[in-house]
# Entry
Amino acid sequence: MISQKRKVIIVGAGMAGISATRKIYGQDGFDVKVLEASSRAGGRTHTTTVDGVPIELGATYIHGTKKNVIFDLGKKFGLISGKGKREAEWEEYTLSALLTNGESVPSDIVLKCYDKFSDLLDDIEPDASARSWASQYEDTYTYLANEYPKSLEKEKTTRKVLKEPYCNSLFEVFLHLQSVVEGEEDCKGVSILCPYVDLGGDPDAKFDDGYSYGFLVNKLLEDLPKDMILYGREVVSINTESNPTMVKCKNGDQFEADHVIVTVSLGVLKRRCLDENLLPNESSMFVPPLPVEKLKAIHSLGFGNIAKIVFQFDQEFTSKCKFKPLMILWRPEDKDDPVIKKKFPWVTSLFTVERISNSNFYETWFHGCTVAQVESATKEEIVEGLCYILEKVLKHPIPKPIDVHMHNWSSDPLFGGCYMVDLTTANTQINMSALEEPLTNNRVLFAGEATNQAHFATVHGAYLSGIREADRLIKICTS
Ligand SMILES: Cc1cc2nc3c(=O)[nH]c(=O)nc-3n(C[C@H](O)[C@H](O)[C@H](O)COP(=O)(O)OP(=O)(O)OC[C@H]3O[C@@H](n4cnc5c(N)ncnc54)[C@H](O)[C@@H]3O)c2cc1C
# Structure
């Protein structure tokens, strides 16, 4: 039994902060406050509703449906019925794969080649026996680039593809799809021995039509007192040299805490804790500075960049456009198109366009260094670039999208990117567990997706990390 209430400050109201708060709030003996820098909860889950349609600007899928806490919560709150929408969508899946001169590649060939590609990815799951031979490769890129042609060679139907002029373009699209998952440039440097554990079931499940991550966040906040989360409180310093710990915000507010749970992204930790990234007049977020092992992990782990763009069309385009999704296979000569080179070079990294359910919204994803170009482009430039390439590929005029929806995750200082990527190679060993190690006799604890070694880069990983640290705190305080 705790005699005096322990003051707990949770930094960040993303999924990790929310789960930790709910868990601790449910216990006697704690006084919890959440300090959130922005004006909303949810962090990298971010839904905006346009014309009644919820649009995900951040997390979109639920990765795995077996024992996935997010899938289970979605079901509990009535946001998911059956198996999850994505699986149902794929049953009526029709794919168009078009070269940049408008020629089409048969979808059955594309899907066969994609099966080969994804089998290779399955082979490097942590528990697969193939992993021992896969580890001869430096990174995921070299593994895929070497093994994919060999796996096409094995079957008559796919062997023919090796001689097709589009063979490399197809590999480029598949590599793009995986690079969006990894958030890293063409999977280069991405660990082949990554400890991520797939949960099984549908890897890309979704909420039912009309529901989204935003609904889940609202449901999770319903049980918490409204004033528990203080918005507009960007934490600039966590000082454990004073006792109790002093937490200072940019707006001048200060809070005393017995324990602090830090849930900010790895991108924020990189910016606010590594000397070389601090802006003039900015000091480290932690006083005293973080221990060397933790700083090394923050420095060496990658924080991937992706951009998700949602285009809003009017009714007519929807009825004309049958593709779901459209794959764009770039012919090398079309990448040299002078208009593209001059006006929108990022367009050469546009590989897929997918319709969101039966709406007038279509989404596309970018990865790696193109993200900076996309985030700095204006909406008009983005629309012009999209129309230019789609008209070339589809060979007919298309109406202009009436709006573009996206969040600039990479340039937003409250995130600094999208999600953690493991860059461990034979030559770069990274102690990932150092990131979650508590500090100063458990006065500062760390949660957030990047601290979850088995499920980083996901919403369920973030949620579980919050529970993990809440449990740690409860155990310390009650034993
Ligand atoms: C574009 C995109 C697509 C994604 N797609 C998927 C997907 O399909 N499926 C999936 O499972 N995952 C996906 N993810 C990853 C998933 O969204 C994250 O792993 C998860 O939401 C991270 O939650 P978190 O609580 O760890 O961190 P965050 O959500 O980053 O929460 C941290 C909070 O801290 C706040 N903050 C930052 N600095 C401070 C400060 N100094 N003081 C106070 N508050 C601060 C931030 O505003 C934020 O609200 C995607 C992410 C992105 C960006």
